[in-house]
Amino acid sequence: xxxxxxxxxxxxxxxxxxxxxxxxxxxxxxxxxxxxxxxxxxxxxxxxxxxxxxxxxxxxxxxxxxxxxxxxxxxxxxxxxxxxxxxxxxxxxxxxxxxxxxxxxxxxxxxxxxxxxxxxxxxxxxxxxxxxxxxxxxxxxxxxxxxxxxxxxxxxxxxxxxxxxxxxxxxxxxxxxxxxxxxxxxxxxxxxxxxxxxxxxxxxxxxxxxxxxxxxxxxxxxxxxxxxxxxxxxxxxxxxxxxxxxxxxxxxxxxxxxxxxxxxxxxxxxxxxxxxxxxxxxxxxxxxxxxxxxxxxxxxxxxxxxxxxxxxxxxxxxxxxxxxxxxxxxxxxxxxxxxxxxxxxxxxxxxxxxxxxxxxxxxxxxxxxxxxxxxxxxxxxxxxxxxxxxxxxxxxxxxxxxxxxxxxxxxxxxxxxxxxxxxxxxxxxxxxxxxxxxxxxxxxxxxxxxxxxxxxxxxxxxxxxxxxxxxxxxxxxxxxxxxxxxxxxxxxxxxxxxxxxxxxxxxxxxxxxxxxxxxxxxxxxxxxxxxxxxxxxxxxxxxxxxxxxxxxxxxxxxxxxxxxxxxxxxxxxxxxxxxxxxxxxxxxxxxxxxxxxxxxxxxxxxxxxxxxxxxxxxxxxxxxxxxxxxxxxxxxxxxxxxxxxxxxxxxxxxxxxxxxxxxxxxxxxxxxxxxxxxxxxxxxxxxxxxxxxxxxxxxxxxxxxxxxxxxxxxxxxxxxxxxxxxxxxxxxxxxxxxxxxxxxxxxxxxxxxxxxxxxxxxxxxxxxxxxxxxxxxxxxxxxxxxxxxxxxxxxxxxxxxxxxxxxxxxxxxxxxxxxxxxxxxxxxxxxxxxxxxxxxxxxxxxxxxxxxxxxxxxxxxxxxxxxxxxxxxx
Length: 874
Description:
Elements: E1 2-4, E2 10-13, E3 16-18, H1 23-33, H2 42-50, H3 58-73, E4 77-80, E5 83-86, H4 94-103, H5 107-111, H6 125-151, H7 155-168, H8 173-185, H9 189-207, H10 213-223, H11 248-255, E6 262-266, H12 273-283, E7 292-296, H13 309-319, H14 329-340, E8 346-352, H15 355-358, E9 368-373, H16 378-384, E10 387-390, H17 396-407, H18 409-414, H19 416-426, H20 430-442, H21 448-457, H22 459-462, H23 472-481, H24 485-494, E11 501-503, H25 504-511, H26 515-527, E12 532-535, E13 538-540, H27 543-551, H28 559-575, H29 595-618, H30 622-639, H31 642-659, H32 662-678, H33 682-697, H34 702-718, H35 722-739, H36 742-758, H37 762-779, H38 782-798, H39 802-818, H40 822-838, H41 842-858, H42 862-873
Parallel strand pairs: 6-9, 6-10, 7-8, 8-9
Antiparallel strand pairs: 1-2, 2-3, 4-5, 11-13, 12-13
């Protein structure tokens, strides 16, 4: 499948255009494609697609667009807490092919991909700005092509297109210089000089500016009758890395036109900063005819101190031909700026330790500067207008291409699964790939599987080729050595977290710091590219950096487990205020003011909670392991995450068994029974129910006994044994009444009423449900009210009271939305569709069923989705 962005947005499958929907749906596809496999947070997607004109239910609308794109194009659009992610081979997208051709200096092929205005038809402030940027890339490619043609002596053939471009871009001075040069070489100096005068006046009148130094230089050389280049300046660049691959987006960022002359390339050790800088520099040598200066500032060198800027300035001035070098930093910096003024020069400052080290080495104007550093150099961005380009890991396809370039296509093709394993374990880190490739190149007779096996067993040991620069541990250690003591301690503690990322509040608990102080410590780690704040308030490490951190000595105590257990308890009580949950101490626990806030926290922290529950069990912190599983239960029900609930309860059950607590064990068994039956494992579910009932009966605890009966009633209904379901519902009600737990009495009254309704005994059903409604209202039990309204709607529907049924379902739906219970929203929407269908209101029925189907699909409830889809199809 091919994706076209350089014109009207289109998708082609085997040459045939595929229908991709209306403009907003196309906008969602393009916004995801442009990230090249990186996740896009939902809020960012909404801003890109609608800007400030987002509709009231923009999120639900967005979910619908994503669902339709998956279906229309068979795309694997993943959803995670970080957002939506679409991974597509870059060669299938014309924009990325355009940029690849530009990097390879094949400008004719690059420009031949354009079909008109980029992203034609997409409308939002973000797309407008992007379109302008893409057109600037196109113009830059056209100007680069002109330079090549002029260098090849094709000035006469170039003149018509140069005149046309100059009319379209009247303020572009590089274009003006090209046109003047072509006119001069065609023997038309008069027109060349006239064009310069027109350009000079236009710049003065419209912008109040003089022509740039390069344009003045061309003008002066034409007046003198010679366009010969001046003597070459210093050529200090090291050779480019021979196996450089990927970095399409980063190279495009460096290529993007504008007034920025300083670029700070940042990233963790081994990410390929120097390789990128040198690759770009060598591809743009013709833009810097006055020379290139290079210095390794040794900011993180274990064998030497950072190079003082005063020393660098002496070396630069000598390279520029200066024979008399003044003493003192300020004097040398001033002389340096004077010497380079007006020159088209490139300065590469590699491996900088700080902004202070770099600032004296900045030219005053004209020259282009590339700075690489393991730090973000925020001062350079803030005070000197530097553009920041942060490097992430290589895309898996680019990592494989690197191994092909280094080891040969044959050797890579011979073990494709092993190569995929190598790429995975190296995590896209160029240094790791280089070390593996170097070891494999030194042992050409070894199968690649040998290196993959070593990586799998001991990744950091395998990433050591025997020298300090090819030892990943050593390279990472140089970054850690530059940290403050508090940040270095935090780095080691974060290595104990055992999850892909961690939230700010959880990190503060782990570090035992106030949130404000923890944020500053994490910012130091961010600045050193040892952690990444991939979405606001959440931090992650590269897998290999995390392994290195985990190897460092650190004692996390139980602070993180205590934070998660106590905060999960607070969130669960916000969702179900009447649920009894044991206290758990943590000085860092969060509180929640609404259902939405509690659900949002569970959404963001779900993976971390599941991981910490397992780790707590392994550390014999059984109370925390139990409580986290118990607190997650209602969240899992609301989100329809049955398989996750099984995993959490299995861990909680082991903790309850270690604690020797029969009530906790009974609770775990009955919840597992319900989950297994819902997953279709009926026999296993019933065995858990029976064990739960046995444990509860042995305690004399009426509430636990009632809970066991209640679970068995649900299971009986699930398999269609309604008489047994009613029998156990009545038994549960009686136990709860004896226990005096009014909230459970209210819920059981509704369940008894519901089972009477399922048996067709609607008068008795209504009596029980109306009593349940009164008690739920009195208790302020919103979830109980919503469930009872669903039952009353069902009864009204079968009593022939259509309007009452629609009203009750509408009220239930509103409550479930307020509770952020998307699982029950889907069920109520399906039931509401049934009511409309029975009344012959086909359009309304299909609308409600369609909304339910989208939710079922999002929740991974494939059985319900398939059944509903069949009904819609019929």
